[in-house]
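Q: What structure does this chain adopt?
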Amino acid sequence: MTPEELFGMALGLSLPWKVESSVIEGGELRIRIGFEKGAKFEGLPVHDTVERSWRHLNFWQYATYLTARVPRVKGEDGKVTQVEVPWARPGSGFTALLEAVALTMMRSCPVSETARILGVDDMALWRLLERSVTRAKAGADYSSVRRVGVDETSCRRGQDYISVFVDLDARRVLFACRGRAASSVEMFKKDLIEHGGSPERIEAFSCDMGPAFISGIGEHFPDSAVVLDKFHLVKMLSGAVERTRKEDTRLQRSSKGARFLWLKNPSRLSDEERCELRRLRQEPAFAKTAEAYRLRLAFQEVFTVESGNAERILDAWLDAALDCGVVAVERVAESFLKAKDMILSWFQNRISNGILEALNSVLQSAKRRARGYANPNHMILVSYLMHGKLELSAHCVGRRASTSTTHTK
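A:
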């Protein structure tokens, strides 16, 4: 068996395609592909050919390039068209196999590292990812979307943000865009409609207390309930506990280092930590911190009661928090009072941004591995790649052309 026949088998070529030659020059393997004389494509004789090249996966240690005389055929209308080859997508400079491997690697590896391993330009991979996401997302169906979570996440420390909209039932990213303004909700609505979804069928949104998202939902999804994410609400109270602790610690420096005792839930403390926290709560110097901590735990308990008692329990908590004498907690309670209906909405819809926070955590981990994304659009692409549940496989669209190819002796 000749080297050309071996390469033909490795590339999965079938008649009339064949490897005509192969040569190693300057550390690169060049494989030339041709076709049998007299071959017809799509039932038409070859009008002329145009030379094209594609980057392929390495053979051994050699960067490999395919070069082919790609036939062009003339239809009955006199229009000349280029035949689709079975090993690459039209217009791509990569073979389908290299695209498939690159897309798989980019799910768990930074694009720059994938480019280094494959020996290709990283910007070429970003363009590949953009084309693949655009093509796959065009066929996405959002007609079943009913409950949506929205949150923002950063692209770089203190820099640009992107807004991410997630289907809370399917656990997939539906839409991501630059910024975190009310206009992001409007863009999501447009994208939802383009993919067969209906704003009227969206039952509820889960979000934080950011006024931009709340106002955007109210304007563009007026029939949807807004559910304030309970984890974000507890986080706000944890912030109030921390601010109070700092103030108390200024007067009791011997107890510095106890920060995480106040931030953890009791169930996550060791026996030793519980004893230390119990001691701190009994010290007069930490009376305000202890009260803030007690109210934070009491607020978490609100979400464990039956829905029929929820409003009464929440009202009791608000009364206590608004008159607790701890400034940081009182300010948070004032915000909660204004948003009372959106807090109680949880008991009817039972949704939160927990899923979205988990997805964003994975996305932030990818960002750290990539050392940030200077271009926010790159982080948007990665969010679709990792969590969009899109069919991004680089299927060889040229297969259709090869099956309609005939060979004439």
